[in-house]
Design goal:
Number of helices: 8
Shape: extended
Bound molecules: zinc ion
Distance between the termini: 81 Å
Number of strands: 4
Helix content: 40-55%
Number of domains: 3
Strand content: 5-15%
Radius of gyration: 26 Å
Order of helices and strands: HHHHHHHHEEEE
Structural class: alpha+beta
């Protein structure tokens, strides 16, 4: 077993752990210490593992060392040498796939990275991965999850028609998100009482008014503010 007498736990790692539910924190502190001091990887699976991977990468980079796998029986081989940056790129892809319902392994993530698409397409938010996952879910609702995964993997790598549809999908999503944000902002900043008399306001379509003061209040998209005006 390779042993490290000290390691640096960064503030980020500490913060990552602090945001976890209480019953998970201790296990992650232990994992961080075991990995930092002895290079022992925890036996996490699935989502737990996906929380762990970025922590592990951070310990590696904070301690300025290559990842060393311990001899505690873990399989998976040791990428010795400076592969951390590549690995964190792969982890991004793995996590993004997992976020949208597909567990892929390192090798598959590598294929995604190498299949020739713009690397930015693989990053959240609104990644190509999310787009394909949505499409597969819409079009193949009744297929088994194994079949859906096959389709998902093939689609990411080979489906040119999806690649040509993706930019428009992303654009539309971004627009509707902006619109939603604007609507929320509009509701949040909407005056509740008259600016002059403090009385209750009436509403007609999208306009607010105070009959007593003969004032209107309407929302301006351009400035994203409510403006008062006389009748
Ligand atoms: Zn008034």
């Amino acid at each position: 077993m390779r042993q490290f007498s000290t390691f640096r736990m960064s503030e980020t790692t500490h913060n990552q752990i602090s945001t976890l539910p209480e019953d998970m924190r201790l296990r992650y502190y232990e994992a961080v210490c075991n990995y930092g001091l002895y290079g022992i990887e925890p036996d996490f699976q699935g989502v737990e593992q996906s929380i762990w991977i970025p922590m592990r990468d951070l310990i590696d980079s904070a301690s300025d060392r290559s990842r060393v796998y311990s001899d505690n029986g873990k399989k998976g081989g040791a990428p010795v040498g400076n592969t951390n940056r590549n690995q964190s790129k792969l982890n991004e892809v793995i996590n993004e796939s997992l976020d949208h319902g597909y567990y892929i392994d390192n090798e598959m993530a590598l294929e995604f990275v190498r299949c020739g698409m713009d690397p930015n397409w693989l990053k959240p938010p609104l990644s190509f991965i999310e787009f394909v996952a949505n499409r597969v879910e819409e079009s193949y609702k009744n297929k088994s999850s194994v079949e859906k995964k096959k389709i998902f993997v093939t689609a990411i790598k080979d489906w040119d028609d999806l690649k040509s549809e993706y930019p428009k999908w992303k654009n539309d999503k971004e627009k509707s998100m902006a619109l939603k944000e604007d609507k929320q902002h509009r509701e949040k900043t909407k005056p509740k009482t008259c600016t002059k008399c403090g009385g209750e306001l009436g509403q007609y379509n999208d306009e607010l008014y105070c009959r007593k003061c003969q004032l209107n209040c309407s929302y301006y998209e351009g400035t994203q503010t409510w403006e008062w005006s006389n009748w």
